[in-house]
Design goal:
- The protein has 351 residues and is of the alpha+beta class.
- It has three domains: 3-118, Rossmann fold; 130-144 and 219-350, 2-Layer Sandwich (D-amino Acid Aminotransferase, Chain A, domain 1), CATH 3.30.470; 149-216, ATP-grasp fold, A domain (Dna Ligase, domain 1, 2-Layer Sandwich).
- It is 39% helix and 23% strand.
- The strands form three sheets. The protein has a five-stranded antiparallel beta sheet with strand order 11-10-9-12-13. Strands 3-2-1-4 form a four-stranded mixed beta sheet, sandwiched between helices. It has a four-stranded antiparallel beta sheet with strand order 5-8-6-7.
- Strand 1 (3-10), helix 1 (16-29) and strand 2 form a beta-alpha-beta unit.
- Helix 1 runs antiparallel to helix 2 (57-66).
- It is globular, with a radius of gyration of 20 Å.
């Protein structure tokens, strides 16, 4: 009998469009002999819509721009409960959602309450991984090397903007990076070389979040690694990102085909071993399950710093995470199979 998969995509998030592209790619790759797929589209306003099939993302994104304002909300819990109740065979939810309201533990929490199996990280790991400040605090507690950082709340900044710029300048040197605490895909991130740029960066980042993180800028290679598993996670080969832009921004990630992904990354065995070890430590520090892409900075002298982990990394067939696994012997459809297996495994363990 075919396994039912409910693919959640879109989402109330600045990374909405990325998710649409990914979901389309996943449905193209799923083995229809094995799986019966129900796409569930979440509009930018948070409305849940059951789709018969996934449409070409270019068309869907076009339509989305037209009806962005029109959406109303329905209760996702009722919606999904209703779909699941009709299931005769255990199904699994695949939350292919990036950013807040999807990758951050909220949807995962709803699925836990409904007692449904789902793919990927649980509530805690998703929530902690989405908040860069909390994530970095946990990395620090786990003894991982990383850049220095400070955090500022919107209300602090509104009360006394100059004091918050001074707080940054006291702790860090230029260039620094300003980021919304809870986001991904480089949305709202700026690199600042002086106070003037810092001011602009704060304004930009606070549009996306009430909390921001400011980090010491480093000049380093960007090396990423895939982690897969539950209690006994394993690592893929490492890959390097070579952006042609000033940093790996949104355009470089999704619009500009120029960014080179070098897999496997040309790093020494020693650095590769360090990265693997740090990736597993990070995975455990946030109590992850299923999958994670762990991202590192490798400075000229070979010093390795962890940048972040992503609990639902970019997942199209040409994204880093699937490519890392492909080079490690697991092709795209096999990777999806494995993630579904891991989701069921974790669910059964908890019953
Ligand atoms: P996201 O979760 O949106 O991917 P990141 O923290 O990974 O956010 O930042 C996006 C990109 O910005 C990184 O891939 C890197 O190119 C650049 N970047 C971020 N932080 C730093 C830093 N502290 N030093 C140098 N480059 C950085
Ligand atoms: Mg990220
Ligand atoms: Mg990143």
């Amino acid at each position: 009998m075919k396994k039912k998969i409910f693919l959640l995509y879109g989402g109330k998030s600045a990374e909405h469009e990325v998710s649409i592209r990914t979901a389309f790619a996943v449905t193209q790759a799923l083995n229809f002999e094995k799986y019966e797929v129900t796409p569930i589209y979440i509009t930018e306003a948070g409305q849940w819509v059951k789709r018969e099939a996934l449409e070409n993302p270019v068309k869907q994104i076009g339509e989305l721009r037209l009806d962005r304002q029109k959406s109303t909300t329905t209760s996702p819990a009722l919606f999904i409960g209703d779909s699941i109740e009709k299931m005769d065979e255990p199904g699994i939810i695949f939350p292919l959602l990036h950013g807040p309201n999807g990758e951050d533990g909220t949807v995962q929490g709803m699925l836990e309450v409904l007692n449904l199996p789902y793919v990927g990280n649980g509530v805690l790991a998703s929530a902690a991984g989405m908040d860069k400040v909390i994530m970095k605090n946990l990395f620090r507690d786990a003894g991982l090397n990383q850049v220095d950082y400070v955090s500022v709340l919107r209300h602090e900044w509104e009360n006394d903007a100059v004091a918050s710029y001074e707080k940054v300048e006291k702790a860090l040197d230029y260039p620094c990076f300003v980021k919304p605490a809870n986001l991904g895909s480089s949305v709202g991130i700026s690199k600042c070389k002086n106070r003037e740029e810092l001011v602009r960066a704060f304004q930009e980042a606070f549009q996306f979040d009430r909390k921001i993180i400011i980090e010491q800028g480093v000049e380093a290679r960007e090396i990423e690694i895939g982690v897969l598993g539950n209690d006994q996670p394993i690592c893929s080969v490492a890959g390097e990102i070579v952006p042609k832009t000033e940093f790996y921004d949104y355009r470089a990630k999704y619009e500009d085909g120029d960014t080179a992904l070098v897999i496997p990354a040309d790093v020494s065995e020693e650095i590769y071993e360090t990265i693997k070890e740090m990736a597993i430590t990070a995975f455990k520090a946030l109590d992850c399950s299923g999958l994670v892409r762990a991202d590192f900075f490798v400075a000229k002298e070979g010093k390795v710093l962890i940048n972040e982990i992503n609990t639902m990394p970019g997942f199209t067939p040409v994204s880093m995470f699937p490519l890392l696994w492909k080079h490690s012997g697991l092709d795209y459809p096999e990777l999806i199979d494995r993630l579904i297996e891991l989701g069921f495994e974790r669910y059964e363990e908890k019953q």
